[in-house]
Design a protein that fits this description.
The complex is a heterodimer.
Chain A lengths: L1 H20 L11 H13 L8 H32 L1 H14 L8 H8 L3 H25 L3 H9 L4 H37 L8 H10 L3 H29 L7
Chain B lengths: L2 E10 L8 E11 L4 E5 L6 H8 L7 E6 L9 E4 L11 H11 L4 H14 L15 H13 L5 E5 L7 H18 L3 E5 L2 H7 L2 E5 L6 E6 L11 H19 L2
Parallel strand pairs in B: 3-7, 3-8, 5-6, 6-7
Antiparallel strand pairs in B: 1-2, 1-4, 8-9
Classes of the chains: A mainly alpha, B alpha/beta.
Amino acid sequence: MKLARLTPLAGLLLAWQAVCSLGLAAPYLLPSPLAILAGLKELALAGMPPGRLLHLHAAHSLLRVAWGFAAALVLALPLGLLMGYAPRLHAALRPMVELVRPVPPLAWIPISILWFGIGTSSAAFIIFLGAFFPILLNTVAGVTSVNAILLEAARTLGAGRRDILLKVLLPGAAPAMFVGLRIGVGIGWMTLLAAEFAGVRSGYGLGHMIMTARDIQRPDLIMAGMAVIGALGLLIDAGLRRLERRLLPWSQGS
Amino acid sequence: MSLTINGLGKTFTGAGGAGGVAVLARLDCLIAPGSFVTFIGPSGCGKTTLLRVIAGLEPASAGQVLLDGRPPAPGRVGLVFQNYALFPWRTARANIEMGLEIAGVAPAERRRRALEYVKAFGLAGFEDRYPHELSGGMQQRVAIARTLITEPALVLMDEPFASLDSQTRNSLQEFLLGLWETRRDTVLFVTHNVDEAVFLSDEIFILSRRPARLVQRLAVELPRPRDRTGPECNALRRRILDLLKDQQEEA
């Protein structure tokens, strides 16, 4: 069954390989799957630029995402919880949120380079901006969607504000928070690459690696880098889903 | 604990502040400790509002509710909801423990007490299930256990069996009576089901159409267990149905 689902993908790869092997596409525009695989090996063993190995590029990128995402998490979750709980706070902060949110994170790149310089902190700041709003807004939505009758049930059991916040609204909003986390980390991961295209100081980062490959006209390495980015994104999302199933066994689907 | 309701009134003011809907009109009654009292009335008459005001979930517009002469402290009036209102993220046992957790009872102690309730409520083997994995009857037993474990001074029940099929409802009525006969909580039960009121109650309060006031107070002096379809129960049911019909016709 699982294998059957992979058939279309395998078909696509075969057709792609056939198109390249028959010489129907110029190799400098569309490298074949096998060429990309070889490129992957080259990235892992020889590095791009030579000596800078794939796993170190990935580690730098992941670290930037981890910083930005952690900052977004630490600020957006409690703020979202409070905004969902206190309508007046929500009303007070909403105009600011609505004003800043539509600015694409990438539009912040020039100013963040000015503020933080080229490097991990400016990249992390861009990721923070990309991840912050989905987490915040989903948390607020999660809190406000908690059935009011559960708050009343808790109150008749003697719950005060603190109990309501921590024992009812927090767990009740948790599934929506996870949706926000998954969207946030996805956007953060996407913005990371753009932030790295703009430059890195350490000489490491998947975005930087891809730009280097472009500079020397190696589409096979570019696409190998893209494949790594996709695979890591998939792994991060799968990890979050797994964490959600472990932490929230009561919440099905979502 | 004796319950005194003094001139209790509740009016919901309209959005524009104009007019307002009177739901309770100067309700007075005194309920003896340890008695099982049922409020019955036409649907939409304000029975649920009455319970919500007594539970402190809605402020009264007039009058007061007193438990042994004092306004009830938070958490002292338990409420069992029609749709169970269980916390979906808590297992049956953790739901039952919630009130003890709020009261600051140590984990080992509240677990021990919750498991006693699990056993007494026929939930053994299901204590680690989440609410959505339980039948309606089981969910309501969890909800009742969650309320009773905190030993509330007054137990309010808002049509607790209305969402259940009739067999389950009958068996839960018997279960509830069995509990009450050993515990002797003061129970204030709301229903629109005449059969249920007659089967369970020491006293039945018949409420008018909205705004609700007390139409009649009937003492049920039949020994328990009662025969639901026996002549005494039937005669009482007929009497209540007539009174309720009068209320409908006054419309």
